[in-house]
Amino acid sequence: MSKRIREQNVASELIDSEFERALEETEHRQRDRGRRIEQKTQQLCRQVQRALNLALAGQFTGGASDDAFVVDVSAATGCGRVVAHVTIPAGQSVSAVLGASRH
């Protein structure tokens, strides 16, 4: 038996197998939790997008905001807010659309 194999055998005997398994399970749970949080965040963003588009559609006034559309909603990193990405009709200014959507 080589020196390297003996050293690996000694090292494996020193590691508590239950503790090692617990660490692996904890890492797995953390990855799963991170994925679930990301899925929930994406779900919330889609719901916000739908709600904003419904609100914009309900404000049909024949004005500047009639053709405005929420293209995407994304989570702002680390601040608990979302950012809505809105298309504005050609020939309309941002301030005109914002003003029309506030009424």
Kindly describe this structure.
- The structure is a single chain.
- The chain is of the alpha+beta class.
- It has one domain.
- It has three helices and two strands.
- Strands 1-2 form a two-stranded antiparallel sheet.
- The protein is rod-shaped.
- 5% of the residues are buried.
Helix-strand blueprint:
Blueprint lengths: L2 H12 L2 H41 L11 E8 L4 E7 L6 H8 L2
Antiparallel strand pairs: 1-2
Keywords:
103 residues; alpha+beta; two-stranded antiparallel ribbon; 2 strands; rod-shaped
Helix content: 55-70%
Distance between the termini: 83 Å
Name the structural class: alpha+beta
In terms of per-residue confidence, which ranges show pLDDT below 50 for 5 or more consecutive residues?
none
N-to-C SSE series?
HHEEH
Discrete helix count? 3
For the largest sheet, list the strands in their spatial order: 1-2
Largest sheet: 2 strands, antiparallel
Percent of residues in beta strands?
Answer: 5-15%
Cα gyration radius (Å): 27 Å
How many structural domains can be distinguished in the coordinates? 1
Q: For the residues shown, what is the average pLDDT?
A: 79
Number of strands: 2
Global shape: rod-shaped
Give the gist of this structure:
By secondary structure, the chain is of the alpha+beta class. The chain has 3 helices and 2 strands.
